[in-house]
Fold this sequence. Notes:
Shape: extended
Amino acid sequence: MAWRFEVGRGGGASPDSVTVPLVKLGSRAEKAGLVSWRDYLSTLPLKSAQGTREPLPGGTTPFPLLILNHPPVSGGRLPIRRDRIWFDDGRGYLPLRLESQMLEDGLSKDSRYVTDSIVEWGDPVLLRDGTSFAGTALFRHFTPTSTVQEGASLKDWPLRYYEVNSSKLRFSNMRLNEPLDSSLFTINPPPGTHVLDEVNHEMYITGSAGEQLHKMALQLRNDLPPPERSRGPWLWFVAAIAVVVLGAGVWFYCRRSRLLRRPAQ
Length: 265
């Protein structure tokens, strides 16, 4: 997915972490699911953000840790979600780990945060300008599963989170802000390509096949008889007037005939 590349290179957040409709963040987020850090941070109450130092899970060396809290759950005081991000301050604050957590049973005194996704960056590379960049990004996803407990109802079965899948991105030929030839951004699709233009709201086929389909459509339009025009409600109005006039004429004719046949007094 495109958003994984964006997150992997440190350019944005996962759309699954956003608690507002993506349409509110612009067309880029809505259509491609790409959420920049600037857009993501605009959805959070930044005054509630926290900064501290903690070791990575299983480690001993403390690293800077940023905790980004979402708005609190309705009727509660705890954030409905939060993100925990570790940085390497020895490598220009290169991201090391991102934990996305959700609040489980937020209105209960036993509420807790559970991790549903993790991103781990590794294999740092030093670029030509001295910037550190992660060479790999590991995505891990977790899902809850009810654990059977004898004598308890289904709703009281405890949930345990299990890792269900993982994927790893590996970056190569990494360059930062180097000039690129404009021809790299020119798209020339081969003939027969189906093109869906979201900007101009058009769909067409490139090459001779598309031109032939266009000619066939024009020929078909010329061969078919023109559609009948809608007569609309005015036709019924005219017909009603005609019926009234005809009825009045028949009544007048019958009445006049009776008067002429009536004997003189």
